[in-house]
Specification:
Structural class: alpha+beta
Order of helices and strands: HEEHHHEEEHEEHHHEEEHEEH
Radius of gyration: 37 Å
Number of strands: 12
Helix content: 25-40%
Shape: rod-shaped
Low-confidence stretches: none
Mean pLDDT: 85
Strand order of the largest sheet: 2-1-5-4-3
Strand content: 25-35%
Number of helices: 10
Oligomer: single chain
Distance between the termini: 129 Å
């Protein structure tokens, strides 16, 4: 076999390998959810599309021929994003790589949020740049993130309106999330309260600490499904504030032990102060009535006995 025939045979074999490789690549690209592309640019001229692959029609609604006719996918970019994306493309230089988010207008007019992962390299000729990109439709993710953000905003506004603080305790790690409303209730900044159980336990009034801890641990150990308990906590100015703490186990392991508790704190200091004043007024009134020599008792409209002075109690042996 001559060298020419051998070279020709080798060339045909190489072309066959390339053909199969290209066919395989295009097959794999067709299964992708990404719109892949290669663009080329000479000097400062705009990038033009050289190759398309993947889910370009699924992402854009256009056929391969229609996109190649445009020469670039920039005309498909939402008008509010065109300037930013155009500047991004013009500023690309060899070695640049990363990702950029923007919106595309599909052929049918629908707006899709996409993210392009890109890499720019020097081309074969002087002044040539090659852009390799993969554009992914992230619309559903954007919608989900926005829904979560909206839900969190609504919850935050609701918590602010009710003047309550939220806590979320990961029992296994010991980590606790304290909402801004939780810390502000006692005058602390969020940074003043580390995300740990000790941050809460450490500022509970010594006389209330054991009962507060017991309520939480009874819930952890499945002796309670939920709890509500009142106790005092020290504010940043040193005052003791009365808190109504509510909590509930939201997940348990196979043994029934809680792995996560969520609850709220409500400042009930004003209510407690009113109650204390009522008790004080009642005790003062009782002292006055006990000094009166007459026999006095009082009942409600249904004649249910409510109380009496000392003389009446002594008379009836109460």
């Amino acid at each position: 076999m001559s060298d020419f025939e051998k070279s020709k045979k080798d060339l045909i074999a190489e072309l066959e390998v390339l053909r199969k490789s290209e066919k395989l690549y295009r097959k794999l690209s067709s299964l992708s959810f990404d719109f892949t592309h290669t663009c080329v640019r000479n000097s400062l001229n705009p990038f033009r599309i050289e190759w398309l692959g993947g889910a370009f029609e699924k992402v854009t609604g256009y056929t391969c021929e229609e996109i190649l006719t445009n020469g670039c996918w920039l005309p498909l970019v939402h008008r509010d994003d065109v300037s930013r994306v155009g500047h991004h493309l013009l500023s690309l230089k060899s070695g640049d790589a990363g990702a950029i988010d923007f919106r595309l207008i599909q052929k049918g007019g629908d707006v899709r949020h996409v993210r392009e992962f890109f890499s720019c390299e020097a081309g074969d000729s002087l002044g040539e740049s090659r852009l390799y990109g993969s554009i992914r439709d992230i619309t559903e993710r954007k919608i989900a993130v926005q829904a979560i953000k909206t839900s969190e905003e609504r919850f935050s506004l609701a918590m602010e309106a009710t003047k309550e603080g939220l806590w979320d305790w990961d029992v296994e790690s010991g980590g606790v999330y304290y909402s801004p409303g939780y810390t502000a209730m006692l005058g602390y900044a969020t940074s003043d309260v580390p995300g740990h159980l000790n941050s809460w336990a450490g500022i509970i009034h010594p006389e209330d600490r054991d009962s507060a801890l017991k309520a939480n641990m009874d819930c952890v150990e499945n002796r309670l499904d939920a709890f509500a308990i009142e106790y005092r906590m020290q504010a940043i100015n040193g005052e003791w504030r009365w808190i109504l703490g509510r909590g509930k186990a939201v997940s348990r392991d196979a043994t029934g032990r809680a792995t996560r508790l969520i609850g709220t704190h409500t400042d009930i200091t004003q209510r407690k102060n009113v109650e204390a004043k009522l008790i004080e007024s009642h005790e003062m009134l009782q002292c006055v009535l006990d000094t009166i020599p007459q026999y006095i008792c009082w009942k409600d409209r249904k004649s249910t006995f409510l109380g009496c002075n000392k003389n009446y109690a002594d008379m009836v042996n109460l």
